[in-house]
Write a structure and sequence with these properties.
single chain, alpha/beta, 2 domains, six-stranded parallel β-sheet, 12 helices, globular
């Protein structure tokens, strides 16, 4: 049985089901203190470790039990300084049997209208005929620093979006936690004072914005990965797990560990190999396709309530 390094991790709904194939691993949360404790204690005790992060289909309501978790016994997917299970699997590539499943999964994801969290409604206002989408993030988001990003990259990203697409409006999506949790974003307020910039700060679901964009600009936001699955052009100003494979336009050099890969390789690695999906009610192990079907049903009920 896996051993959590703090009480909160041990209280994760169906914890044992998520860690069923990890034996007596010491379990922590990503690059948080519990994750560091898990790795250090594992070395001292000569035990395996596993680091958890929310899966890319986490839940409908934010406080629901998780539908999925990333379980990694090498590193953490957003830490570009060292390998992770997603990186290793992407580099290895999808097999001839796995690639068709990945393509079907991409189509299913596009049609589902899902995101990581799924409680918010899609943006209801009118959209410009032509626009690019820029994703801001929260201060304190470990994926920024661990993805080799810094504050200056957000300003550079916004400038590039304006320069690269002179005939387009630029929609800047503020992270929902700025509105709901009182956090700060990275893009300076004065940089948003431009006639072609429109700020979207209502905490809306991102899918409608992604689908209509000519391109998506991000530092390390998960919106970039979702945009790749929707077939959008993605420009990265950090080094998230989905950059450096030839699938994105990258402002920085990728780690030497990463080489050219296909979207099927990345999606199979991220959505199938590295993630675990569990029935939030009964605790049964689910394939990703079953989790997507469940989330679609729950989102429809949630928004219809």
């Amino acid at each position: 049985m896996a051993i959590p390094t703090n009480r909160a991790i041990g209280r994760i709904s169906h914890f044992d089901a998520f860690l069923a194939d990890h034996g007596r691993a010491l379990v922590g949360w990503g690059r948080k203190p519990s994750g560091r404790r898990a790795e250090m204690a594992a070395r001292l005790l000569r035990l395996p470790f596993a680091l958890l992060e929310d899966g890319f289909l986490r839940s409908v309501a934010r406080n629901d039990p998780p539908l999925s978790l990333i379980v990694d016994d090498l590193g953490c997917y957003y830490d570009a300084s060292r390998p992770s299970r997603i990186e290793i699997a992407t580099a290895r590539g999808a097999t001839p049997d796995q690639a068709p499943r990945a393509r079907a999964l991409i189509a299913l994801w596009r049609n589902s209208g899902l995101s990581k969290y799924n409680h918010a409604r899609d943006y209801a206002g009118p959209l410009p005929e032509r626009y690019v989408l820029v994703a801001d993030q929260c201060h304190g988001d470990l994926s920024v620093a661990m993805g080799l990003g810094q504050g200056a990259d957000f300003a550079a990203m916004l400038r590039a979006a304006l320069q690269d697409w002179p005939g387009h409006d630029v929609l800047v999506k503020v992270h929902p936690d700025v509105r709901t949790h009182g956090k700060a974003g990275w893009i300076p307020t004065d940089a948003l004072d431009h006639p072609r910039i429109r700020v979207i700060d209502d905490g809306c679901h991102p899918v409608r914005l992604i689908r209509g964009a000519s391109a998506v600009y991000t530092v390390t936001s998960l919106i970039g990965f979702e945009a790749l699955m929707h077939g959008r052009a993605v420009h990265c100003f950090g080094m998230p797990f989905y950059a450096g494979w030839g699938l994105t336009q990258d402002a920085m050099a990728a780690p030497a560990r990463r080489r050219a890969a296909g979207i099927e390789d990345l999606v199979h690695a991220a959505m199938v190999e590295a993630a675990r999906y569990v029935d939030p009610q009964g605790g049964a192990i689910w394939p990703v396709e079953r989790a997507i079907a469940h989330a679609c049903q729950q989102r429809a009920r949630w928004l219809g309530a």
